[in-house]
Amino acid sequence: MCRWIAYRGETTSFEPYVTEPEHSLIAQSIRSLQSTAGSNGDGFGLGWYGEHPEPGLYRETRPAWSDENLRYLCRHLRSHLFFAHVRAATGTAVTRQNCHPFACGQWMFMHNGFVGSWNRLRRKVEALIPDAYYPSRLGTTDSEAVFLAMMGAGLENDPLRATEAVLQALVGLVNEDGLRERLRFTSAIANGRDLYAFRVSVNDAANTLYFREDGGQVIVVSEPFDKESDWTEVPPNHALIARASESVKIVPFDPAISGDS
Amino acid sequence: MCRWIAYRGETTSFEPYVTEPEHSLIAQSIRSLQSTAGSNGDGFGLGWYGEHPEPGLYRETRPAWSDENLRYLCRHLRSHLFFAHVRAATGTAVTRQNCHPFACGQWMFMHNGFVGSWNRLRRKVEALIPDAYYPSRLGTTDSEAVFLAMMGAGLENDPLRATEAVLQALVGLVNEDGLRERLRFTSAIANGRDLYAFRVSVNDAANTLYFREDGGQVIVVSEPFDKESDWTEVPPNHALIARASESVKIVPFDPAISGDS
Amino acid sequence: MCRWIAYRGETTSFEPYVTEPEHSLIAQSIRSLQSTAGSNGDGFGLGWYGEHPEPGLYRETRPAWSDENLRYLCRHLRSHLFFAHVRAATGTAVTRQNCHPFACGQWMFMHNGFVGSWNRLRRKVEALIPDAYYPSRLGTTDSEAVFLAMMGAGLENDPLRATEAVLQALVGLVNEDGLRERLRFTSAIANGRDLYAFRVSVNDAANTLYFREDGGQVIVVSEPFDKESDWTEVPPNHALIARASESVKIVPFDPAISGDS
Amino acid sequence: MCRWIAYRGETTSFEPYVTEPEHSLIAQSIRSLQSTAGSNGDGFGLGWYGEHPEPGLYRETRPAWSDENLRYLCRHLRSHLFFAHVRAATGTAVTRQNCHPFACGQWMFMHNGFVGSWNRLRRKVEALIPDAYYPSRLGTTDSEAVFLAMMGAGLENDPLRATEAVLQALVGLVNEDGLRERLRFTSAIANGRDLYAFRVSVNDAANTLYFREDGGQVIVVSEPFDKESDWTEVPPNHALIARASESVKIVPFDPAISGDS
Questions:
Q1: Among A167, A169, B171, C40, whose Cα sits 20 to 30 Å from the Cα of D224?
Q2: Per-residue pLDDT at B36
Q3: b/e burial code for range C97-125 (CB count within 10 A of at least 16 → b)
Q4: How confident is the model at residue A259 (pLDDT cuts 50, 70, 90)?
């Protein structure tokens, strides 16, 4: 059960969102409230867009709470669209390549969830990645494999449909042979302009997801970082759409029910 | 508030004591019970005696819970006297050189506690280290400085008296100018044959300390790693003496009261 | 171009072989002589057999030359059969899981070489790993994939035949479509009793391999660690067989020429 | 013998100066040409000024050549004044706190050199640090101690005079008792506007130092990163002064000769 935050809005330093709040992501790395994991000390990552079409990444294996570099970067980096993520590993190794966010071309992705029985389903999920994207498989997580499958399914052309196509394939895999493995997919993707988030689960409860919108600013989080009342919960099996210069839309998104979006 | 375990007895692998118990030190690195720190994820260390007079060390900055090397070493290393320690930093950096145990000559030392107002007192504590031992100051912790001061005070000749002399000096420092800074010193030292542990505090409550004795085997811990009833608590301001081939003795040890041991 | 050493003989500490010689593996990590890589600073590893059937491992991402833990372990660990390896990465990430040796069941493996055009051939090589061994794929190197394919081909029953079968499959892959990609495979495997080493290349020169035999002691190295004259070069496309209690045998081993061993 | 680069000029990404040149600092981390160290793989660091008065830092213990984060940051960070440094340790530990640059208040500092017989002189050099700056001593290097002594000597008011005062004290220490220890001090300091560099040695040859000036842009380096002819060598025992909006001045700076600047 990882914790993450995504920001889209005016160009800002990351500090007021990642390190300074009372219940900041750094505080959540030590103790999260709405998660079974307790601490999220298995590495972390930042991803952000600046003047290049592709994002920058800073990923480290040590816990976020003791990383001086992270504090410096959150204070000095500036972006209009950034991700931050603290990891609680669910079986795969603690390496930088297994830390979120993941980047591929202009897209980046981060995830809180898992594909049940990963050891059994890993090959089948990896088989969803087209050859063209397989060299981008730098780590061994389920999250990265799902992201690269989404890239292969056309994330660049139609993010919702590509994500849905991959999730439908995953639903097929976890339900294979009547096994009804669990699948949790609470994630965010972005391309430098648009931000999307998903709260999906199959055969299981969904990991929490909240957002706050204020003018053109949108903040999406695993759990609120302050006690203000203006956080809205995204319902299970819904997607959040925050396209550049548009207001947030929350739409049903349930790949388990139907193949038609 | 760190957590640690010290073992002296038949030559054994570390596994049954460090990684396998229900509430093992690894489990305590994720969540300790008798400590305010919660997790102890700021590095860890092993120290052990084998066929050489000086100990071996394995210290790492990542959390103990995700370190594959630690599991391999706890399974494959064998020793008749070893220390294991998981760290919750109290202000100094997370580096290997700041992880416990510390080694100097034939001695090793590990600690759970702190010298209050370390930034203010650091120079004065470092001044307790004789020149001959100052090159052994590889890190920046209060713990290492206290250990090297103990070495300088004659640990090799009279461990109890040397420890008492340094603690009396520390009591003087924390009580300087009527400030009554806090001092907690729950620690273990060994020289390859004899094991000593201390539970001391000044102007504060003492960190917990327990032991279990069975035949020639002595295990000393910050908190019990199982629910058996044969753990004995060491009272505050007492020392545990477990010399080679002797039974455990618990003796008063209160440097704040008197200069005579 | 990595550098490695394998030892089989009387139980010993690793020091006289890994850290102390004039041109030790540690010295080779800073500057090797018979390699194009120069430094080998992309991590390192130790693997050894003790009282358990499966080996212990210590693998780290930092350069061998600055790792204090490595010096302690080489001094304090003891084994009758151990591997040590310093890595010069050929494209895959510097993670512990990509450092050698690799272990699977009772076997361990280390490698100096590469599969040409790994990005193109990776999927095909990974497809050689049977499902039963795919959960053991913890990293992303060509070396680990080849090892797990060897495990799947029956390393436990017939090490030479299993290795040959996998290399023949690799020869097929590198020669596919007339592309004649390069393959270098200078490696060692062991099971706690027997030690085997291979010096093979296809469409390329072979990486160097030497050994020294003295009584029941066998040392196999990428390049000699001293200037003594009793090192024997293993010819290209040959295997070294050092079974427990037997003398070294050097036998032709050229999977490119023939499918019959 | 470390290698470094300092930049002051138009706001730029670091890429064209740190990672892209033919003989970039990253290339020098693998193999430098004008240094006895060969590789500089004992950690690295970036320091830069943005919209805050104090600098940001990114320091890591792994070699620069394999750090993905470094490449991302050099591409995405932008600054008008930045430092980059690759380290070849001269005896102190490989920790982030021992990597350059060091920061204190608005100042940052990086160094290529050493204080001879550091183990013997360490206490005396640390005694040059006033109490007010001693809590900023996070590591154990000679470089950081010298920097904090410079801060204490008034770097903020008169950088040249403060540096000279500390170097004169160091000259006194290395020449104590007629021992004539060696001292090499090729360093850079900056405060967000002004950049200073020093090439000084006592009882020894001076480490190399070059600069290139083009309009308002000044680049100072340990060794040129390309083969262009417009690099100028700073003579031994001289200082480079590059104040904001001023041209570079090279002035004599020899603390061994005289106490008057």
A1: C40
A2: 64
A3: bbbbbbbbebbbbbbbbbbbebebbbbeb
A4: very low
Q: Does A123 touch chain C (CB under 8 A)?
A: yes
A72 and chain D in contact, CB less than 8 A: yes
List the A232-233 sheet strands across, edge first: A56-60, A44-48, A78-86, A3-13, A217-221, A210-214, A232-233
Point out which residues pair with A84 in neighbouring strands. Answer: A5, A46
Task: Answer whether A69 sits within 8 Å of D60, measured CB to CB.
Answer: yes
Angle (CA) B37 B43 B45, round 5°: 115
- pLDDT band of B101, cuts 50, 70, 90: very high
Residue in D93, D123, D134 closest to B97 by CB? D93
| Chain D residues within an 8 Å CB radius of A76 | 48, 50, 52, 56, 77
The per-residue pLDDT for C212 is 98
C61 interfacial to chain D (CB closer than 8 Å): yes
- Across the interface, whether the CB atoms of B56 and C75 are under 8 A apart is answered yes
The CATH code for residues C3-252 is 3.60.20.10
Residue type, D71: R
Question: How far away is chain D from the Cα of B43, in angstroms, using its nearest Cα?
Answer: 13
Radius of gyration of the CA atoms of chain B, in A? 17
Vertex C10 angle, CA C71 and B81, to 5°: 50
Report how far residue D206's alpha carbon sits from residue B208's, in angstroms, rounded to the nearest whole number: 55
Does residue D260 surpass a pLDDT of 90? no
For residue D258, is pLDDT > 90? no
What pLDDT, on the 0 to 100 scale, is given for residue C248? 98
Q: Parse chain A into domains and list their residue ranges.
A: 3-252
Q: Which residues contact A123 (CB under 8 A, 6 or more apart)?
A: C131, C134
Whether the Cβ atoms of residue B145 and residue B137 lie closer than 8 Å to each other:
yes
What is the per-residue pLDDT across D189-247, written as a single tens digit (0 to 9) for each?
A: 999 999 999 999 999 999 999 999 999 999 999 999 999 999 999 999 999 999 998 99
The widest CA-to-CA distance across chain A, in whole angstroms, is 51
Beta bridge partners of D200: D185
CB-closest option in A38, A63, A93 to B63: A63
Nearest to C111 by CA among C5, C28, C188, C225: C188
Between C159-174 and C142-152, two packed helices, what is the crossing angle to 10 degrees? 130
Q: How many angstroms away from the CA of A95 is the closest CA of chain C?
A: 6
Tokens 């050189």 locate to B97
pLDDT (tens digit per residue) in B11-67: 999 999 999 999 999 999 988 877 766 789 999 999 999 999 999 999 999 999 999
Say yes or no for a CB contact (<8 Å) between A62 and B62: yes
| Mutation choice for B interface testing from C48, C57, C69 by most B CBs within 10 A | C69
When pLDDT is cut at 50, 70 and 90, the band that residue D33 belongs to is: confident
Q: Is B56 on the interface with C (CB under 8 A)?
A: yes
pLDDT at A260 over 70: no
- What is residue C258's predicted lDDT score, i.e. its pLDDT? 52
Nearest Cα residue to B104 out of B64, B70, B149, B162: B149
- Is A174 near chain D, with CB under 8 Å? no
Say yes or no: B46 contacts chain C, CB-CB below 8 A: no
Residue B137: its chain D contacts at CB < 8 A?
A: 140
pLDDT tens, A13-30? 999 999 999 999 999 998
- With CB atoms and an 8 Å threshold, state whether C122 touches A135: yes
DSSP letters, D137-161, are --S--HHHHHHHHHHHTTTTT-HHH
d(CA A169, CA A150): 11
- Tell me the C-alpha distance between B67 and B85, whole Å: 14
CA gap C43, C67 in Å, rounded? 10
CB B11 within 8 Å of CB B77: no
In the prediction, which pLDDT does B32 show? 80
